[in-house]
Recover the amino acids of this structure.
């Protein structure tokens, strides 16, 4: 297992086509640096805190995010890792979709495709690669089928002896530009006649024709302006990209699903459950971070004795512990499929919903505690300005236990939580709440609940 | 392990002072019969579904509710049992406070008191007794300390060589009148000088001076009027009582805490966490029952194709699975104290809150699905009446797959869910939501969350 | 304008077929007496507080509930009357559907039908009759049209020279059995070919073939057992009935809509908006009552200084004032149709939703404040019993400012709020929340909101 | 009444000290231009839609925001103006605090102070000035009184014959730098001995020693980078500033409250109620804008037929209509104080809460409808880039009825709604929700609600 520094060296050796705000950029760009820091942190934290599991494939310990799990304990270890990463980064760790893909492939693939996948996984584990995956196609007009808007969805456009040519794009993709391996999975199921879309594969940094166009939120605009803490979180906003595949060649060795409608269905459900469940642990960590920030703000304002505020910390803890506990429960009540331990599907989807609701509640508590200042505060540049620095210094002070700058750091961090893309990320990451409800509606054993009632009331 | 029939025989052999609506009654009373059925069902279900754990004390399998747990697995078994009981009974199983007391005593007691307790526990296990516990004292004027209103709280009023005389009352007590063993624990912590209240003990059916005055809700009034299904649930409303102790003698052998402020504190927190956590599993089961009823109502109305209604079943499943998963997570992330495996305190309290919120959401979904009819329907007596039976038969019919009587049974069961004491029971059982929030506020490791933020923002 | 006593005398002179719990009963029945008290109270309060408007039809002041309104001021007067009635009765006043029908007829009817209606209205005003209306048909299998289950819906089955014969039933009807005039309106719109259901008319106490079968909730079972305050509210549970029409003759003079699909559509929307809007004022009054009860409970428990509880009274006031203010806003922003001042439709439907959500929030606040005791308290009969009265007296006492009986009266009143049919009544009265949302979706001027955005972003 | 162009000319003639991101800037700065556009729009809309009232002071029509109101009708006109402004600007109109101050002064001031105020008001009306007010002092350590941290709060530091010297700062101030008149009011009540803070006055553009330091949110960073629609809303983020008063001289003619604790109390409550009530109308307009955006997004995605999404538009309308109706109700049920028509205090505070809750609900509906794309979309610069523009064009297309650019404009506008400072502004504008609840708790007539219950239950 490598450390963050080693990851950074490797990643900077790649020459990818990455675009920010209309221009091609390299890995030193201020919108990319924070993402690299986040990736690097995942490596360092794994070493520091032992977030590894034993892999029979390579006969040694590997990062939790680069393994498929053989037991509830391993799966729980992932959730602990995730919660701590989310608390410490206060943003995306980017590698969780990689782990979801690895586990989905391990649970679903059979035969030759499984062998191919395991060979790649061995390589991943040997090199301690960072992996991500891309799922959502740009759907264009949602009232139409993929084929009616063929240029959009990722699909095979040519079949060769040595591999396939793929085209299309994926949106909402988090951090692929800073990963070693990019998995591509279908973002929905397909019907007969739509086999060209029913593919899953992996790309490597050298593959040609791949372009990454990054999102551009306000936090990212701030990142471009620099400052030490003005953009709130040194790990930056959750940075997604649109990944464009312009006639990209994929060798058969990295094609894991090919024109297989059923495999897509299984893969998608397995990935979704895996991702929704880890999302609950992730939201727990985010809420932990918000809780810490809220507590610091209370202290920076001298409000430790106002129970109407401090009790909100208890409410924030409640939603964090709930989301985390659901992930744990889901791990314990999971099942082994093809040697891979998967979380309980019902609980995973319930966890998605609890995570979203908890995040939104925590956000409101944080905002109520913080007051309006995260929206109205002057900037770090004002604090450090010759002309008005002294005023900002004087009027931004709170409790004497904090300097104005310290209080401003807290304020800017809270601004980050309240005005970044995380609200949307919480809602839609792993699919919408509605999608989770539909899963629960169809997968819950409502029949047995009906039966129980029938027995109770002698029906 | 005995069966329900054996329990019933034993319980009917006791001659307790039980009062309903101002009159002394016996075990055949229509407000008590449903409670006995619920107790009996706990016995039958344990046998049918194997809800037992091995006890070293007696060297055999004992009912899950009569044991303290030595592992997460045993604790999870309890939650499964609880969820199923709640789903099947659609009301209280009455024995869960007994199990909470057993686990709290096992975790907290030491020395001679522990020995006494284990001797009683052995007897309980040998006989497969039904146990309950009583905690809440009538607090009178809440602005005063217990001593300022001495006649209210349960307390020791005389110390003898062979035991103590206790006096006072406990309220909100569920089902003690139908149990073999009644534990009494303090309902709050006490200060120095208040040692007379710092006691815990067990009573048996033959103890003199004990009076049980039952609650009297609308469902219970309906129970007194009979009918086959008019009161909705054959297991009746959750039936609590006020237990009056009029100079009751307790031999030392059954006194487990005596004038010990610290033991009370530990006992109370252990009991509360245990009870709040099982409460989450309980609410999951209640929501299961409501979900089954909602699904039957949709079918009885011919509304299976209205997705705005059926999707609510998915939302109900979400809150049920959340509450249950939190209990499971709590068991896994628990800890062993004095050889007793206790649930994770933070998660237990988070589960309490999730259970309440989930129950209230599910109640609303059920009500939206059911329409107004559970409040406005004619009675079973009208359906069976010569004068208007034919009209009720005609106008209460829904889908042809259900007779009018079948639909009415469903309606009356839903009426039960919406107008029984369960809403209050969900809110206040195991203490209020506010109490859970305060626990979380003080027991959460907010310091480490602050530290995480400090590291992230370089504070 | 008559007083309550005069109403009672008149109503008791009618000999209607009323059924309770399978038996025919008269006006002295304990399930009917509270309803009569509520009706009577509407008369007395109108006199005491001047809830009247001038009617040109009869050239004098008439009860607000027996008039159609010519101005926002008159409509607001109705909302004030409604809020006060709901606060004072803590249950249905039964006459509000009468007022809604009167206003819907006045706004919609034209020509001869309007003349017929005005003649009846004159009679109503002259005699100060109590009026109600019935809308909801028992819909049987909801996947079928009315005609496919012809025996259910109210419909014309024979046309005569002097009038029509109607048959069918209405459910969810509040208090018709204790009113002088029963209006019947369609509960939904109909398609071509379904004209037989497109009728509206009025019945009088002497009409033959009408049967009233009353609901039977737990509160009503309690009412049958008597006691002074055991059933909580002297005005009883909201008492609805199923009204069966067994070949009832209606003279043309009282037929207002006959086989007219369009009139039905207008009538229904006008009635619904009118009823949903007054429902908001009604919920405000209900919440007022719950707020008063909560405040009394706080005092009876000696908890006046616990701000976590008293602040809930502020939250309850917030939802009450919101619901009421929406009704007022709706009156002011209403419109005159055919000389009748109708509330603003969008606001009326928004008020319905705010009323429901507010009611449910207030209910939870009340339950949190009250603690578990409204579900677990002994009965009035226990308090007055020779055997255990002294214990109940002692252990139910709270603050010294309240006797045990006083505290019990408060407790039983809160039990009423938490376990009566009002939760369902709030949700479904005037139609479900979903129906209100659909109205808002289609009637809101979303086009102009889109246009505003287009202008803002230059689209 | 002037138009927007005339306002712009006048405002640009002022040479104020304004700081953005650490540098002094002028009115052409990209963070100020959008604010000027918003101010200008208020002028144009008033002319276009007749948002004026007659002023006896100047004997002609004046802008609704520059008048105190003499009737409910005038107050309602203000709410209509506010709602339309909020819908059209999708951000702050900046002048509403000016109107609140004018009405608070008119209702509270007496004698010479009133005369001074009226003289200024006449000047305001004659010139159609834009007015704002500043209230919140930087409170430093909230556990200390203002005097213990004397340098923070705005206070009088010297009294002269011709006026006073004031010092301190105000935070959270919206738009003062772009207004003609800046009112200063105390942000809290004070105790005896704290008279130095008990002052209220007005500043003009020429006054020396005033510095405006602007907030710096992500939207503002985007504004600095330009683009045609990349920052979402041409009117920009709600732009507040910290106003520093560095020994500013105020002539007596513009001092309206001087060392008067009671006047401060009245002024503050009057201002707060006025501002909270208009805030409800404001939130209605914001929700209108979000609803329009949501509807456009549904269309741009081809999702018009998905009722699970379109029904959310109905829910959004419900909360908008509720908030607006409460403002209207508040106007109607208001009262005349000193010739000024003030909104009903209870309803105003209830409206504040309904506005916040409605805003947060609407935000979630908007986010659920929009999907993740407002967080993950490429930028306008990417769309227009030579290198990747063609890809963005292709993959961002939705329905054929919208170009990629049109869809992107909608997306960026939604990004604005979800990641601007409006969430915080909604929560804290006019004070926190907790403050509104406390007001309701103390000002509601809970006594009369208790009395009503006492009568109902014969207590």
């Amino acid at each position: 297992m490598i450390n963050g520094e080693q990851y950074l060296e490797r990643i900077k050796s790649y020459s990818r086509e990455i675009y920010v705000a209309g221009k091609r950029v390299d890995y030193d760009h201020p919108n990319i640096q924070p993402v690299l820091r986040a990736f690097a942190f995942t490596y360092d934290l794994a070493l520091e805190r032992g977030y590894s599991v034993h892999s029979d494939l390579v006969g040694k310990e590997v990062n939790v995010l680069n393994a498929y799990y053989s037991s509830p304990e391993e799966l729980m270890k992932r959730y602990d890792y995730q919660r701590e990463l989310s608390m410490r980064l206060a943003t995306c760790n980017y590698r969780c979709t990689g782990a979801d893909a690895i586990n989905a492939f391990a649970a679903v693939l059979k035969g030759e495709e499984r062998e191919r996948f395991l060979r790649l996984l061995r390589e991943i584990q040997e090199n301690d690669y960072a992996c991500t995956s891309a799922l959502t196609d740009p759907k264009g007009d949602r009232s139409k089928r993929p084929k009616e808007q063929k240029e959009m969805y990722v699909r095979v456009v040519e079949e060769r002896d040595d591999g396939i040519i793929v085209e299309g794009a994926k949106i909402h993709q988090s951090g692929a530009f800073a990963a070693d391996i990019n998995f591509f999975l279908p973002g929905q199921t397909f019907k007969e006649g739509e086999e060209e879309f029913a593919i899953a594969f992996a790309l490597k940094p050298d593959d040609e024709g791949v372009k990454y166009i990054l999102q551009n939120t306000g936090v990212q605009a701030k990142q471009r302006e620099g400052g030490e803490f003005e953009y709130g979180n040194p790990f930056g906003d959750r940075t997604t990209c649109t990944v464009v595949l312009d006639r990209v060649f994929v060798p058969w060795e990295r094609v894991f699903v090919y024109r297989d409608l059923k495999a897509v269905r299984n893969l998608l459900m397995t990935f979704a459950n895996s991702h929704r469940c880890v999302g609950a642990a992730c939201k727990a960590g985010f809420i932990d971070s918000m809780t810490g920030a809220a507590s610091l703000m209370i202290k920076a304002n001298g409000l430790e004795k106002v129970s109407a505020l401090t009790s909100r910390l208890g409410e924030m803890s409640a939603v964090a512990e709930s989301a985390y506990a659901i992930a744990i429960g889901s791990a314990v009540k999971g099942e082994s499929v093809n040697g891979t331990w998967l979380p309980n599907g019902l609980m995973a989807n319930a966890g998605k919903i609890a995570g979203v609701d908890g995040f939104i509640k925590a956000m409101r508590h944080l905002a109520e505690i913080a007051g309006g200042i995260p929206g109205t505060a002057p900037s770090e540049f004002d604090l450090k300005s010759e002309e008005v620095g002294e005023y900002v210094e004087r009027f931004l002070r709170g409790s004497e236990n904090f300097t104005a700058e310290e209080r401003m750091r807290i304020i800017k961090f809270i601004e980050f939580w309240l005005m970044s893309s995380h609200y949307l990320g919480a809602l839609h990451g792993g699919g919408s709440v509605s999608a989770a409800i539909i899963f629960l509606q169809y997968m819950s054993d409502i029949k047995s609940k009906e039966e129980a009632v029938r027995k109770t009331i002698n029906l």
Observations:
- Chain C has a mean pLDDT of 97.
